[in-house]
Amino acid sequence: MVVLIKGYSAAGNSDPDTIAAVATAVGNAGISIIRMSGSESFNIASEIFRGKGSFMEYPSHTIRYGKIADPDTGEVIDEVLITKMAAPKTYTTEDVVEINCHGGFVTAKRILELLFRMGARPAEAGEFTKRAFMNGRIDLVQAEAIADLIGSITEKSSKVAVTQLEGRLSQVLDRIRKSLVEILAEIEVNLDYPEYDFEEVTTDKCVQAVNSIVRELGSLIDSFDFGKVLREGLNVAIIGKPNAGKSSLLNRLSGKNRAIVTDIPGTTRDVLEEFVNIRGIPIKLLDTAGLRETTDVVERIGVEKALEVIDSAELILFLLDAQTGFEKEDSDILEKVRGYSSKILFVVNKTDRTDEEKLREIRERIPEVIEISVLEDYGIDNLEESILDYVNKSGIDADNQVIVTNARHKKLLTEALDSLKSALNAAAGGMTLDLISMDIKNAAERIGYITGHEVTEEVVTNIFERFCIGK
Ligand SMILES: Nc1nc2c(ncn2[C@@H]2O[C@H](COP(=O)(O)OP(=O)(O)OP(=O)(O)O)[C@@H](O)[C@H]2O)c(=O)[nH]1
Ligand SMILES: [Mg+2]
Q1: Would the CB of 422 count as within 6 Å of ligand 1?
Q2: What is the CATH number of domain 235-391?
Q3: pTM of the full structure
Q4: Minimum-distance ligand to the CA of 242?
Q5: Cα–chain center distance at 432
Q6: Whose CA is nearest to atom 24 of ligand 1?
């Protein structure tokens, strides 16, 4: 069931209580910031802040120097800078106070406890942002983008989050929802005045409009594969026979001396993970034990682990060795990964130590193989380019295109698309307009759920509990 729960304090006056939290990471740092929001914020601040003049008289959106002191004992807790921001032009749209105190483990905690004693209560995870949403300053897509921005791991993923925070996806979705509502209004008019008998004309018009929305939803949904990678990253496993240079490649791509490299086959046993940023794509690179039959107990466990990784990885770099050429071990591995061909890139390493004959043999077995030499730093650019092409098959321009990055959004977009397709089928099958309109109404509703135009309490709780405290 849909429950509209937005706007309980749109005017900023029926706000239930004042919340406070430390907004910065706890630990050894220059400053900490304590944030407080709600109708009692200014009263509480004026009780504990000692500065020039009266806190209540300070103009909004100004910052002042002073001290925080316990009003009961007079004890000074810290020297601070205090920011006063009056509703409604604030993060939450409520009265907000921010206190910059000295960093470390103790001071911010003591000030926060003082705020609680004066009547504020601890903010829940994401509660400041939740208030911004509830009070109508941002929609749900923008709120989710804030969490994404905080969690983003590469510059590219943070750029996409900022675009969504600015409301570009929201604008597209609002426009689509409005178009659907207009179509519904058109149908409504027709149903209200059946004597005019415009049904056929109306149906044609609707079908045209719905068709163009179907195309737009389709391309938004298509952008998700790449969007998901930008937001969550991609697991890429390097596999191959012992000594092919898997660990050397991990070290080269991560720019670190992460894995042990020796010329002894069977060096790597455990699965090694390293986060790398390849052309803005956040990637978790997994180096694995060389795959071969072995009687060594430890190595065999490593091989088993490597086989598990093959199953779970989203992309596999299958490394061959140009120095040895194509061997039985390679064809054994090829057999093992037969079911995964759609997620494999073949790479042949050590092209610096080979002859044409061996390379030709490999090329014959594997038509599309990327040639590299980790040792001579040859072909790495090409490999990175191929990884980028793999995750961005349709060549989406992440800097300028609206991209769907969130699984919740994709699910609702897909449901909306299905409803519209069913509307088109109904129209093609000569169904009546009121039947067609039910599907369109359903689609409009789904789009509304994405931005939070219509939303259930459960969804809101689910989204905000993933935030950090103080945001
Ligand atoms: N000539 C040459 N040697 C390389 C190249 N890349 C790696 N090597 C050497 O190949 C040997 C094996 O490298 P590793 O990176 O340990 O190979 P691996 O695939 O991780 O091996 P295992 O962990 O045993 O499965 C080392 O001596 C590396 O220095 C290359 O491009 N050219
Ligand atoms: Mg290794």
Answers
A1: no
A2: 3.40.50.300
A3: 0.81
A4: 1
A5: 42
A6: 266
To test the pocket of ligand 1, the residue of 261, 318, 329 to mutate (highest count of ligand atoms within 8 Å of its CB) is 261
Regarding the domain with residue range 19-137, which homologous superfamily does it belong to in the CATH classification?
Probable tRNA modification gtpase trme; domain 1 (3.30.1360.120)
Q: Which residue has the tokens 């071990």?
A: 329
Amino acid identity of residue 439, one-letter, is D
Counting ligands in written order, the one closest to the CA of 263 is 1
Q: Determine whether the shortest distance from the Cβ of 296 to ligand 1 is under 6 A.
A: no
Helices (H), 138-280: 140-151, 155-165, 168-192, 199-222, 224-232, 246-254
Separation CA 422–CA 302 (nearest Å): 51
Atom 26 of ligand 1, residue of closest alpha carbon: 263
How far is C-alpha 48 from the chain's CA centre? Answer: 39
Ligand with an atom nearest the CA of residue 317? 1
Q: Return per-residue pLDDT of the chain as tens, 471 residues.
A: 344 444 443 334 445 799 999 999 888 889 999 999 999 999 999 999 999 999 999 999 999 999 999 999 999 999 999 999 999 999 999 999 999 999 988 999 999 999 999 999 999 999 999 999 999 999 999 999 999 998 888 888 899 999 999 999 999 999 999 999 999 998 888 777 766 666 677 788 889 999 999 999 999 999 999 999 998 899 999 999 999 999 999 999 999 999 999 999 999 999 999 999 999 899 999 999 999 998 999 999 999 999 999 999 999 999 999 999 999 999 999 999 999 999 999 999 999 999 899 999 999 999 899 999 999 999 999 999 999 999 998 888 888 889 999 999 999 999 999 999 999 999 999 888 888 999 999 999 999 999 998 888 888 888 898 888 888
Q: Which of 238, 239, 241, 243 to mutate to test the pocket of ligand 1 (most atoms within 8 A of CB)?
A: 243
**Four-way CATH pick for 145-223+404-451: 3.40.50.720, 1.20.120.430, 2.30.30.40, 3.40.50.620:** 1.20.120.430
Residue to mutate (ligand 1; options 246, 247, 248, 329; most atoms within 8 A of CB): 248
Domain ranges for the chain: 19-137, 145-223+404-451, 235-391
Is-cis flag, bond preceding 71, omega within 30? no
